[in-house]
Amino acid sequence: MRERFRRTALIKYYLKTIEIAMQAKQIHSFEFLPSVNEMLDKIEGGNIKTTIRAEIIRRELERLRRQITTGGIPLTSRSEAVKRVKANVQAQIRVLLETPLQRVVNATGVVLHTGLGRAPLGEHALQYLQNIACGYVNLEIDLERGRRGERLDLVNDYLTLLSGAQQSAVVNNNAAAVLLMLNSVANRREVIVSRGELIEIGGSFRLPDVMKKSGAKMVEIGTTNRTHLADYENAITSRTAAILLAHTSNYRIQGFTTKPAESDIIELAHHHNLPVLLDLGSGALINMESLGLPHETVVADAVARGFDLVSFSGDKLLGGVQAGIVVGKREYVNKLRKNPLMRVVRCDKLILSMLAFILSRYMVESGPPDIQTYRFLTRSRESLRKMANTVLTGLDDVAKRFFRVEILDSVAEAGSGSLPTETIPSVVLRIQCDKISEVKLAALFRQQDPPVVGYIRAGQFFLDLKAVADKELPFIVNALNRVAEAVASKRGK
Ligand SMILES: *Cc1c(COP(=O)(O)O)cnc(C)c1O
What we know:
By secondary structure, the chain is α/β, with parallel strands linked by helices. Helix content is 45%, strand content 15%.
């Protein structure tokens, strides 16, 4: 007992000594920190405003102070502190002057990668955008009659022709579209939804939460795996405003499951004069199987089945820009258009013009639309293998010495909950390096100019070519050579 007491006392004593030593180090570290004014003289900010430069320095000093307090960074001299602050502030100023968003190479194998901006637009879209963005446009002017127009009508013909619906509305994203749909038709009234469809999509879109914010009261029916038509029927009361169906984009319920045919739900709802809303998510405008891709519900098919409102994203399988599109019966879409919330979630000229441009690509006969997303999605393994070989021939001696690069068949994903749980043929470069870990390897590729974003699986680093444009191949070659160089220089050759 005494022995144990002595031991704890001893440990306490040592801990205290360490604490005192650390505090001393901290105090010293604080003493080394320069003042804002001192740093202002030492850092040139190009053209950046002095007040902004001073504020960046102040924030950097504060950050450093916090790091010292938490024991992260002890400083050993004034010059070290100055050097560190200077480097970080200069880097921040550089980023601010050039804007932090930069072009990256998507070698993740996820074509519609939310973190990388979902659908890429391609170069012909850019030429169009340049013309639109540089000046004024007929956003809300009816050029024929010289009167006030309606911006939503710029894309209405496209959307109604492509979907077979009577009317359309466009908002900032599909989450907003769902919110607007529910608020417009079911504010303070009930909406029936199956427990099997209470979805959460990446980026914190949770259907129950959106429903709550919309003012609609959610009436859950059925169970996670089984919902019957009678469940819908029994839930209908005088307070019911609509039935909502949600596309289970990113998962599949398998096994002992059942759900009623959509046509039966629609028939039931219409019998009770209720609209049926569909959150479709991806919103394919054309048949995916005809392009050799897995099945995905086509918007026009959903409309034809009798859904009253169908909502989907503009930057998933549609291949356009971030937008939420609602198509359906005029009576209901007009409720959305007249809702004051519409003004809150409306799109600007850049989005609407890009959407019009992308939709115009769908007007042509057969085949995949001339859109970057479909160029990527429909590329064959054969052409990807050719690209992979081009990369290999571009490797320099250092890269060949430090890396083992292999070409392997793989599967890519559409991403963003599109073409769920299905896979699409692709080709990867597997990059092995004995000298550094796969995590460091991935980080070095991300630090290239432009950054190359690959992925790690089972402890190995891969670059998938499905979403890499031909024009970007030199960037991959360059990244491989530069990263090899960095590995080599760290090893002293
Ligand atoms: C992606 C998705 C959403 C969210 O769409 P955003 O355009 O990202 O706002 C909502 N519902 C479903 C079913 C989806 O797949």
